[in-house]
Write a structure and sequence with these properties.
heterodimer; A: 684 residues; alpha+beta; Immunoglobulin-like; Rossmann fold; 3 domains; 6-stranded mixed beta sheet; 5-stranded antiparallel beta sheet; 24 strands; 27% helix; B: 182 residues; mainly alpha; Rna Polymerase Sigma Factor, Chain: A; Arc Repressor Mutant, subunit A; 74% helix
């Protein structure tokens, strides 16, 4: 294309998108950001008087002098890793702080801690002799001066060990990882006001520090051997948002960050409302499989009953906010606070909000407050005074939040702990398992859990997903105010008001119609076949108006005939034979039966589940004839498989994903499906 | 200049006036950002960020300049910032940047006459049918080059040629519009 025509090209694309009309979503979102501007600034630029938590001059000075005036290392244990500041800037302001004491602390992967402490009034000196370049995360600091402000910049350089470094500023603690930059700005006149901004250095590696649990894709199974496929529903959406963020910023997506079911369930589908006594409808559609035309694809979709916004039950929300140093970034605490403000607009005088914060110590920041005019002001005031500092004692914070929620339990209402964090639990109950089992225990009280994941580089995705799976919860990743709006405003009813819990799906395949089958995604949501009937086994929740979708890839044929010949067993005679000797198959035109188990939201662990089922006959449609939802969801599934480099992607490629997404776009009022197409196009 | 009329220069800056300007300029800025990033989602983020930066720095806005070109400067900076963070680089050389700016400046002049998009609709109607159908297939039906060529039963090269002629024609038409109506 000629360079003169590039602007008209872009203009045509923009016109095609929305003709001459304003982009109201864009303007609405912009207004929200402008509204939030003043609050954001006040959060990261606290003044002593307004905050009232008395940052003494010495504390602020600690930040600067501690950072620039490096002295000696002390070792807590005999581990050889050290941190060094290989570029020491001159002192910013002489005499800034007597008694200033802290700079950076480095945590090796083994958990061994080392500290650098500042010796008062000592001239900074180079510690190059102490640097062991291969093993170290090294920190460099540089300084700029502007008007009345002094700026210091830290950059943590990547180390082979992939370790983290923490800066501790008395009450204000920050975590820096390899590749991150901290800009610290201090008012030289008052020494009180400071501004701390953490960013990532331009050449940063992708996502050091984010932790993902390993996932293994479900394989094809023969219904002859395993006629039942059982899994728990999953309404989380975090994986899609997280993957989207990584692709948009040009980072490599780790395979295990891709949970296909969360990607499919990020989007809502047009399933009919339930009729009859069950709180959700079951909708099954079959068609040919787009990435392997010889196979069939079965879409099982559930739709939760809609509740009119005005008839929403009263809510008792306990916000549990991580205010540890690692949250001190624009895309974490300030975004969390702004997202909460969006939710606040939706609440009314019947609803109550409490806030628990956790960092070095946990505490109640706001007692339960009804969201009437006065209460709303009190909640906003409390939100605006949020600041971060200290390390994260997630365990104690969660315990306190559940205690509050139980104390103010609203019978028949929504009782929910909403945890906002980057998942950096590093003090107290730290092991994944102990925290998960604590949440599992607490969930028995009938309090639900929502987890909002923030930020990058430190995200403990695997832990956050685990605790929501066990804690009657849902998990979202919030990377922008737009996403905050989706979770708290657009999908608020579904995310907050559960209409059924412990929802399990079990599918029985007819071996005379299905040679083998494979469930796409839900890799860590599989249940044992006997769990379906076991009321004690926990499973996922469905919210009001929520849709949950699962896809099965089916190899049509006769499983019994396709079963391979295996030598007869010597010691077992009564076990199922590999060949259908003496085993009869019921003659049925059905391909499969979908069975569901669920409990009412207020049911206890001992309550018996309700069961119902639906038989499915394959209609022999091709995917081109299938519904838009079928095309779109299969496109997302294929996208997930390609991102996971799955061996099951067949002839699928990104061009096919794009085709499926575009043919399945439908009306797309919220623009989520269009955005998906954009992301795919980017990978083309 | 419209920006000067609507933006009070006294401090503090008027939020309502800013919203009016945002409403007027957001879509042409989205197009501009798309010309830089070649991607619509990123351009939305960049333009949003640019508006927020503009709002924060409204006192530094030079009233002798046009709001649109001031905003495009911020969008360019945001785009460069994004490029630094991203491993996927889109190379846009200075000549192209100049061309983009020249067009955008000219089209800003159409704001008082219903805006560039309205004018574009009029110009689209003036395109000969063979060019118009190429534009419809490629831009409005969002087909890929090959798909559009297949639908129109022409070769890929013919489609490219028609699209290029259509873009040139539309550009001339917009230019004529902005010259005659200002």
């Amino acid at each position: 294309m000629k360079k003169e025509n590039q602007m008209i090209d872009a203009l045509l694309k923009e016109h095609a998108r929305n003709k001459c009309a304003d982009d109201s979503d864009f303007l609405k979102s912009l207004e929200g950001r402008l509204d939030a501007e003043e609050n954001i600034i006040s959060v990261i630029e606290p003044s002593v008087k307004r905050r009232g938590y008395g940052i003494a001059a010495g504390v602020a000075a600690t930040l600067v002098v501690g950072a620039i005036g490096v002295a000696h290392f002390t070792k807590d244990a005999g581990f050889g890793e050290q941190i060094a500041m290989n570029e020491i800037p001159p002192t910013i302001s002489e005499g800034l702080g007597q008694g200033a004491s802290v700079a950076l602390e480095h945590t090796a992967p083994t958990g061994v801690k080392e500290e650098i402490r500042k010796q008062d009034n000592q001239k900074p000196k180079l510690l190059s002799n102490d640097v062991v370049p291969d093993k170290l995360a090294s920190a460099s600091a540089s300084r700029m001066q502007t008007k009345g402000w002094a700026k210091t910049r830290f950059e943590i350089k990547p180390s082979k060990s992939g370790s983290q470094s923490r800066g501790s500023l008395l009450g204000h603690r920050m975590t820096l990882e390899a590749g991150e930059v901290a800009n610290i700005r201090i008012n030289k006149d008052t020494h009180h006001d400071f501004y701390l901004n953490l960013g990532r250095s331009p050449k940063a590696p992708s996502v050091i520090g984010d932790r993902y649990g390993a996932l293994t894709d479900n394989a094809f199974k023969s219904p002859w051997k395993e006629p039942l496929s059982t899994f728990s529903v999953d309404v989380d959406t975090a994986s899609y948002t997280n993957v989207r963020r990584m692709i948009q910023s040009g980072k490599v997506v780790p395979k295990d960050a891709v949970r296909i079911e969360e990607m499919i369930n990020y989007f809502s589908y047009d399933y009919p409302q339930p009729e009859g006594k069950h709180p959700f409808s079951v909708n099954v559609e079959t068609a040919s499989c787009p990435w392997n035309e010889k196979h069939r694809l079965v879409k099982v979709g559930l739709k939760g009953k809609d509740i009119i916004r005005e008839k929403r039950p009263a809510t008792n929300l306990v916000f549990l906010l991580d205010v540890s140093g690692s949250m001190n970034r624009q895309d974490k605490l300030p975004l969390l606070v702004d997202s909460m403000k969006i939710l606040l607009k939706e609440l009314n005088a019947d609803d109550s909000v409490s806030i628990v914060v956790y960092a070095g110590a946990q505490g109640v920041a706001l007692d339960p407050t009804y969201v009437n005019d006065e209460g709303r002001k009190a909640i906003l005031k409390s939100l605006e005074s949020m600041h971060s500092g200290g390390s994260t004692n997630g365990g104690a914070g969660i315990a306190l939040a559940y205690k509050m929620a139980k104390k103010h339990f609203v019978k028949g209402g929504v009782n929910r702990v909403i945890l906002g964090t980057d998942g950096d639990f590093n003090v107290g109950v730290t092991g994944d398992e102990s925290l998960v089992s604590m949440v599992e225990r607490e969930a028995k009280s009938g309090v639900f859990l929502s987890v909002l994941g923030f930020g990058q580089g430190n995200l403990n995705d695997s832990m956050l997903e685990k605790i929501t799976n066990k804690g009657n919860g849902n998990y979202f990743y919030i990377d922008s105010l737009r996403e905050g709006r989706k979770v708290f405003l657009d999908d608020m009813m579904g995310n907050m008001v559960a209409i059924a819990k412990d929802v399990k799906i079990q599918i029985e395949f007819n071996p005379s119609k299905v040679s083998s089958y494979r469930l796409i995604g839900y890799a860590n949501r599989m249940l044992k076949k006997e769990d379906f009937k076991n009321k004690l086994i926990d499973a996922g929740e469905i919210g009001a108006g929520h849709t949950v979708t699962a896809l099965y890839e089916i190899v049509p044929g006769n499983a019994a005939e396709a079963a391979p010949e295996v030598d007869e067993l010597k010691y077992q005679k009564s076990k199922p034979q590999p060949k259908p000797v003496g085993r009869k198959v019921v003659d049925s035109p059905e391909m499969m039966t979908v069975k569901l188990a669920y409990k009412q939201p207020e049911a206890t662990k001992e309550t018996e589940s309700t069961y119902f089922s639906k038989a499915v006959v394959d209609g022999k449609k091709t995917w081109q004839q299938a519904s838009e939802d079928f095309k779109f969801s299969s496109g997302v599934a294929l996208f997930g498989m390609l991102q996971r480099q799955s061996e099951y992607a067949g002839q699928g490629n990104y061009a096919l994903v794009r085709k499926l997404a575009e043919h399945g776009r439908g009306e797309d009022e919220k623009g989520h499906r269009t955005e998906f197409s954009d992301i795919v196009r980017k990978l083309k | 200049m419209q920006a000067v009329d609507k933006l009070p220069t006294n401090q503090p800056a008027d939020r309502r006036a800013f919203s009016v300007l945002a409403k007027e300029h957001h879509r042409s800025l989205l197009a501009y950002a798309q010309a830089l990033t070649k991607e619509s989602h990123t351009s939305r983020d960049i333009v949003q960020d640019a508006f927020v930066v503009a709002w924060r720095n409204l006192e530094t806005f030079d009233v002798t300049r046009d709001f649109g070109s001031w905003m495009r400067g911020i969008v360019r900076n945001k785009w460069r910032e994004f490029q630094r963070k991203s491993t996927r680089q889109v190379v846009v050389d200075d000549d192209v940047l100049e061309c983009l700016e020249a067009d955008a400046q000219q089209w800003d002049g159409l704001i008082l006459h219903g805006g560039v998009f309205n004018r574009l609709e009029k110009c689209l109607k003036k395109l000969p049918e063979n060019l118009a159908e190429a534009v419809r297939a490629f831009y409005y039906d969002e087909l890929s080059g090959q798909e559009a060529a297949d639908v129109l039963c022409v070769s890929g090269a013919t489609l490219r040629k028609r699209l290029e002629r259509a873009r040139g024609g539309l550009r001339d038409c917009l230019q004529a519009g902005s010259n005659s109506e200002i």
